[in-house]
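Weekly modeling sync, notes
Attendees: AB, CL, MP (scribe)

Item 1: holo prediction request
CL wants a bound-state model with fe (ii) ion before deciding which constructs to order. AB pointed out that an apo prediction alone won't tell us much about the pocket. Agreed to run with the ligand included and paste results into these notes for async review.

Input as submitted:
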Amino acid sequence: MISTRAVTTCRTLAAPNTTSTLLKACNATVVGFRSASVSPQQQQWTSRRGFTTTPTRNIKEFFPQTETRDIRETPPAWEHPIYAKDDMLKVQIAHRETRDWADKIALLAVKESELIISVLRTGLDIASGYRHASAKELAKLDPLTARQKYGMTERKYLIRNIFLESVAGVPGMVAGMMRHLHSMRRMKRDNGWMETLLEESYNERMHLLTFLKMAEPGWFMRLMVLGAQGVFFNAFFAAYILSPRICHRFVGYLEEEAVITYTREIEDIDNGTLPNWGKMQAPEIAVKYWNMPEGSRTMRDLLLYVRADEAKHREVNHTLGNLDQKNDPNPYASTYKDVNKPHPTKGIEHLQSTGWERKDVI
Ligand SMILES: [Fe+2]
Ligand SMILES: [Fe+2]
């Protein structure tokens, strides 16, 4: 992985296109953001795949693979399922309507009424300069000024994605850990939930590592991530003790938001407002992890994979939120008596945007 830190960074991603004072502060501190605006020929992300025009003294490897005498490679713990492009293109923004008080609590937690999430969201919006409500208001009155003031750039999206993904890897790990401990403590089977939950957190971390190949956060972002993780881990841990079902529903609603975010990014590439991403190739870590086929390795392709993953998390968590937490087997780690009937799988061929109902899968 070749980083064009320092010199090229300031010319590109850290370009002075920010409008808010807070984001200017962020610009001043997040100095490590690396270039994304190079030509397709220049744009290569690993030392093996490509090259950079940056002088050698300015090149730095960002979490390079450790070279040892005997080990050739350390493959991922969970192989990513193969996604067909047609299936990824079918992913839609969706919302599962609340049906009971537990759903309302979960949605409330996502929609600003829950204190911890509000702090996270506010921190995220401050860090990324993203103010959807204000942008919508201004867009009604003066669309051009709204675009200039609140329009998202590659840099703002990268900040948002890195922050989002650093938090998104927490719930699966906490839930998996809790079920692991519960199984041992109560001397009962877990019914296969743990694997799916840990795999989800692994997948979210791969999203983070992929975006980190494009930009290296400075101390301000690292501080935000540290704070958010400390608060969110403990809050989710406590919440999962009280009600795992609400927690899975909450994650389902959170993933609905993630699908919206990545859909916007894809649309912005398509409408030409993210010119650098429009001509970028995906980093090698992503090509390997998602098994991206030759000819479909652009930044847009990458975002299709990430969005499809988020849609899968949305489905999985809404489904888990529909189940008996103590007794039901995990539908995603099960084999079915009638294999011809559509049922939950690890892939996205039968994606259910609002989850599977219990009566259809158990
Ligand atoms: Fe993610
Ligand atoms: Fe997710």
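Recorded for review: The two ends are 45 Å apart (CA to CA).
Action items: CL to compare against the apo run; MP to circulate these notes.
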